Amino acid sequence: MPVLLVQYGQTRYAGQLTGRVLIGRKEICAIAIADPAISRIHAWIEPKDGRWQVGTTGGVNGVLVNGQPIEHVRQLSDRDTIDAGPVRMIFSLFDKVPRGIQVVTFRQANEGGDASGRLVFCSCGTPTWVIHGRSHRCAFCSEVIAATPAPVEVPEPASPAAQTAPATATAQPASNRPAAPATTTCGICQCAITRGQATHQCPDCHSLFHQQCWVENKGCCTYGCPQVGCLDQHSDEPVRPPSAPVFNEAAAPPVAPSYDYLLLTVSALATVLGLLAFGIPAAVVALIIAWLMWQRKSQSSKILLISLLLCLAGIIGGLAASYYWWMR
User: Fold this and answer.
1) What number is the average pLDDT over the span 146-160?
2) Sorting pLDDT into bands at 50, 70 and 90, what band is 318?
3) Mean pLDDT, the chain, integer
4) How far is CA 258 from the centre of its chain?
5) Are strands 31-32 and 21-24 parallel, antiparallel or unpaired?
6) How confident is the model at residue 178 (pLDDT cuts 50, 70, 90)?
7) 9: left (phi over 0), alpha (psi -120 to 50) or beta
8) Residues 36, 101: contact at Cβ < 8 Å?
9) Cα 130 from Cα 97, distance rounded (Å)
10) Which SS3 state, helix, strand or coil, does residue 53 take?
11) By the 8 A CB rule, do 1 and 17 touch?
12) Which DSSP letter does residue 273 get?
């Protein structure tokens, strides 16, 4: 079974992929990230026709595979890097988890919901979070998913003893009862909005958000709303994730070893040998160093410059010493 390695901040874990896995802000997701840059249902990974693919639900920050944004779905290959907002994942076809990484079990994605909405898969396979009382149009296949009524809590019937027991207390007058705090839920972070907090209401879908969540999300987060990304209309560039490698075993290009100190040692030896050979060894090493400095251009190190000066001194000293030794 393939393995998915996940990192969000300092948290790192991995698990085997056995079916469809959701990535998003809702707790129903197998990879649940409470971050404003992540949509309720941000992306998903699933097997299809014998291969694995990753898909985006069309959120503001989208999904990058190996640094390239995807439009809807893309097939995955071994060691592909997947970035969803601040979350970085590495897909591996081999069930080998790096040492020191916590191993978890990803729960499968099934339709369900909570008090705020429900998870639905449209005909094109895109998972969608539909808020109770609202309809949603898929951004890829244009299928309209009908709204559903919010669940109603039915109070449990009173026990027979409570029904027959005489009332011994007088009901408190409504005017003297403490008023329950009026709270609602932010459409982005899904946290309660309490009295006194700065809020912002979307002018199109009329969803209510924390003012800070509205700014950090760069607008509304309701799928299909025209206010999605309204604070970032002049930037078509998606939010880039951190460029640092996530895992030690990530497929990063190897760094070429430096031969600067080795050349410094060779320059010293060539200078000594050049004292008896008219500076020829030092001249050969000087040509090699000059060629390397020309290749590197502005990235040449001070060690190479010192080596070149040492070779030039060896050439001059070799000419003088050899002439005195062999010619006289």
Assistant:
1) 55
2) confident
3) 75
4) 32
5) parallel
6) very low
7) left
8) no
9) 35
10) strand
11) yes
12) H
- Percentage, residues of the chain above pLDDT 70: 75
Residue 283: phi, psi to the nearest 5?
A: -65, -40
Q: What are the tokens at 302?
A: 């001070």
User: Measured between alpha carbons, how far is 228 from 48 in angstroms, rounded to an integer?
Assistant: 30
What is the Cα–Cα distance from 147 to 130, expressed in whole angstroms?
7
DSSP 133: T
pTM for this one? 0.47
DSSP for 169-204, please give it.
Answer: SPPPPGGGSPPPP--EE-TTT--EE-TT--EEE-TT
User: Tokens at residue 190, please?
Assistant: 């899904």
Q: What is the 3-state secondary structure (H, E, C) of 236-269?
A: CCCCCCCCCCCCCCCCCCCCCCCCHHHHHHHHHH
Cβ atoms of 142 and 135 within 8 Å: the answer is no
Query: In whole angstroms, what is the distance from residue 6 CA to residue 104 CA?
Result: 10
Q: Which residues, in sequence order, are CB contacts of 229 under 8 Å at separation 6+?
A: 60, 218, 219
Two structure tokens written together for 144: 């309209």
Give the chain's end-to-end CA distance (angstroms, integer).
80
Could you read off the pLDDT of 202-250 as tens digits, one per residue? 877 778 877 777 777 778 877 667 777 777 644 444 444 443 334 444 4
84-127 tens-digit pLDDT = 989 999 999 887 777 778 888 888 777 677 777 888 888 788 88
Cβ within 8 Å of residue 320, ≥6 positions away: none
Strand spans (E) along 30-79:
31-32, 43-48, 51-56, 64-65, 68-69, 73-75
Q: What is the pLDDT of residue 287?
A: 87
* One-letter amino acid of 245: P
Pick from 126, 82, 71, 277: nearest CA to 285: 277
β-pair partners for 88: 7, 83
How far apart are the C-alpha atoms of 28 and 114, rounded to whole Å? 9
